[in-house]
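re: that complex we talked abt at group meeting.

here r the seqs, copy pasted straight from the sheet so there may be weird spacing, ignore it
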Amino acid sequence: MTTERHGTQDANLHSLVAAYAIDAVDETERRNFELHLDDCGDCRSELLSLASAVEELGAAQTAAIPKGLKADVMAEVARTAQLPPVVPATASTHAGPTPASAPTRDWAAASGDTPDELASRRHGRAHRARRTWFAAAGAAAAAVVVAVVGVTWADARAQHAADLALEKDVMMVTSAPDATSMDLELGAGHVVTSARMESLAVMGANAPMPEDGMAYQVWLVMADGTKVAGPTFVPHDDGEYMAVAEGVMTDVAAVAVTVEPPSGSDAPTSEPVCVTEMPGKTAT
Amino acid sequence: MSVMSSEDGTGTAPHLRAVSSSMVPASHDHTDSAAALAALVERTARGDEEAFSALHDLVAGAVFGLALRIVRDRDLARDVAQEALVEVWRQAARFDTKSGTARSWILTITHRRAVDRVRSEQAHTDRLYAHGVATPVDHGDQDEVIDRMHGEWQAARVRSGLTALTERQREALELTYFKGFTHREAAAALDIPLGTAKARIRDGLIKLRDALGVDQ
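got the structure back, here u go
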């Protein structure tokens, strides 16, 4: 919950403006810089002042397009849904009774899901919600012990066996009679919870690769704000990912994903790339 | 449609709600085409496929050319261009006139996707090796791509802008913007401190901006 973004780190971030303007930053730097950009008018105006030069650099490469490109683009467009505008953040009350709807919309505006989301977001940040850890108010269910099943993709030899075991776990969760699915804004993802199975599964496609050598880590955010470490995972080459965590679902207020070292962290060391709040997050 | 609110500070893009782009008054080419493109993005944001088709015709050459320059393979560039153009459709409602022109936004999406493709196709160590310290800029490939260019005058403008840069600034922009190196990788490839790499990128862009006479 503590987000230290001052002092020397800010100085470093200031110096990244031009590199950011031409995508010469890695994923972590990009995320940090975009957070910084929300607070720093100097960087925003410098970024804008460089935009024309970057635009000319890019536009100067104009070439004749391949035959059929337009037909393909138009055909794909005809079957592609458009994203809604990024609207100013509102208080995150989502009393809606439909768990499968997307209470993560505001988070979607603030969290990194696809590279293109980020690319476009830099142009829409005036309306952007600040990303923070979700902290549920209300009665805290403090002493919750959560067992966590972790899966990493690192060991190629164990990969197949791990895949099968994981798929089985995922099946157990997703096929539970009380399984509930919610959007997870990491690529095109979702999180499925089952109170009965005392488990949740995250899965999806088109997730961007974390920075070299880093991994995603799942966090279970409890009603009192405690963050319980979940499994780490790295998407497959095609951007697909899966992970399963066990815990008492009635005590979980939100599920978050951060970028961490591959061995995982005991406490998050970076801001979440996405957060999904649980509906009906009443502590028992 | 709050993202397209009329309080934008650019002063160049008239607020063309429900007004066809053909009604943009003609006076200055550059300003007008920027306004027309912004209007097309706005109509696209409302699901207007006809507007998107017109938008496509205006930017597809630049999108494909940029993708080709970065990924250097026509088939791959075609994929990247298609993905980028569909992203423009998908994200049209999130375009914000306050953050630059529509073309700038579209090229940013394209560049980002092309660079992501390059970075995922090759381990960065491969690239460091292939483009190591002694071979700063590959003029051969650059010429090959330039031969295929449509917008020669634009290219000439940029080239003349690029000649205003020091060789070192140009090299830094070449490695980062066109080859997809991060500033860190560029620093390693050029064997210079990180701060120096960042400064060369920044100074290069500023000088390019000034040389092009495009004050924002």
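couple things i noticed - Chain B has two domains: 31-122, 133-216. Chain B touches chain A through 83 residues (CB under 8 Å).
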